[in-house]
Design goal:
Layout (H helix, E strand, L loop, with lengths): L7 H5 L48 H102 L4 H48 L6 H10 L2 E8 L5 E4 L2 E9 L4 E8 L2 E9 L4 E3 L8 E9 L2 E9 L9 H4 L4
Antiparallel strand pairs: 1-8, 2-3, 3-4, 4-5, 6-7, 7-8
Helix pairs in contact: 2-3
Length: about 325
């Protein structure tokens, strides 16, 4: 049998080695010389090369990437525009709220000033009422004194009768008593008249204060005419067509300083009693109260029309305070 060619694969796993056979000598066989071992066959190792990388064919993902980037850019620009629009709307809303807050603050300041004025009037009225209470106490004292004197006169008269006095003495005592009672009655009547006068003044002051508290505002000419018909005050219209324009109403001069139509506020100067005062950043239809010497109550200034560098409105005064100035009813006698 021909020898087999050693295989490299078999050599790697040691399959090319010759099988070793174990020979058992028979017990009775003579000893034989040991055979010489054969030289080992050469061994071979198989080395396998790593697999080569297979190129992957290009797909359509490279073309879709620019479109994806463009879509993200458009989405970012849209979000930025929405943020800017929301911020602009928020700024507008914040501006309107700030303007409304400023208007409320100015009205609160005006209310505080008006409250201080009315408080002063109430103090004056309270002082008058205190005087009335003193006069009433005096009347009660006089009435008690009259009653006491009447009782004294009756006691004296009874005493004279008891002592059987003459008719002349009785008549004299009676005449003295009547004279004293007449004097006390006169004092009591005067006190009663003073009480009635004080009560009338108190009612008038209370009526004026109540009218000021009502705070009726005329926003048109017709409303002003109606207000003049049912009120106890005189009303005078005025128009200032430009800045620095002046109009004199009685002893008061009104001068326009500036206007702000966006915020519906204005500033004016009032000149009266040898002084000039500024009323700045006042709202339209907001009453401005001020006192002039000789007036029984405060004067009122209202602007009911406001434009660019122009205002129109009216001034109200106590009845007959400016007798030589034509009021709104005198301008329209048939109204």
């Amino acid at each position: 049998m021909a020898d087999k060619v050693p295989s490299p694969g078999h050599s790697m796993f040691g399959l090319n080695d010759a099988p070793t056979r174990r020979v058992t000598a028979p017990e009775e066989a003579p000893a034989s010389p040991q055979p010489q071992p054969q030289p080992a066959a050469p061994q071979y190792v198989l080395v396998q090369q790593p697999p080569q990388a297979v190129p992957v064919p290009a797909t359509g993902g490279g073309k879709a990437l620019p479109w994806l980037v463009a879509a993200l850019a458009v989405l970012g620009i849209a979000n930025l525009m929405m943020v800017l629009m929301a911020r602009s709307q928020f700024n507008d809303y914040a501006t309107k709220q700030a303007d409304a807050l400023n208007l409320i603050t100015r009205r609160i300041d005006s209310s505080d000033e008006r409250y201080a004025q009315l408080r002063g009037q109430f103090q004056v009225t309270e002082e008058k009422l205190g005087l009335t209470q003193q006069e009433l106490a005096r009347a009660h004292a006089l009435a008690a004194e009259v009653q006491k004197q009447q009782q004294t006169a009756v006691a004296q008269l009874n005493q004279a009768i008891a002592q059987k006095a003459s008719n002349d003495e009785v008549n004299k005592l009676q005449a003295d008593s009547n004279a004293k009672i007449g004097g006390l009655s006169t004092d009591l009547a005067g006190t009663k008249q003073d009480l009635a006068s004080t009560k009338s003044e108190f009612a008038n002051a209370l009526t004026g204060t109540k009218g000021e508290l009502n705070g009726a505002i005329a926003r048109t000419h017709d409303e002003l005419v109606a207000l003049a018909h049912k009120g106890d005050r005189d009303y005078f219209e005025f128009t200032l067509p430009r800045r620095k324009a002046q109009q004199k109403i009685g002893t008061v001069t009104v001068e326009l300083e500036k206007t702000d139509p966006k915020k519906n506020v204005f500033s004016v100067f009032l000149s009266f009693d040898d002084k000039r005062t500024e009323r700045s950043n006042r709202a339209m239809n907001e009453p401005l109260w001020f006192y002039v010497k000789g007036a029984s109550s405060a004067l009122e200034l209202v602007v009911n029309k406001l434009g660019k560098d122009s205002v129109s409105g009216y001034m109200s005064t106590p009845k007959g305070f400016f007798p030589s100035t034509t009021n709104v009813l005198g301008q329209r006698p048939g109204a």
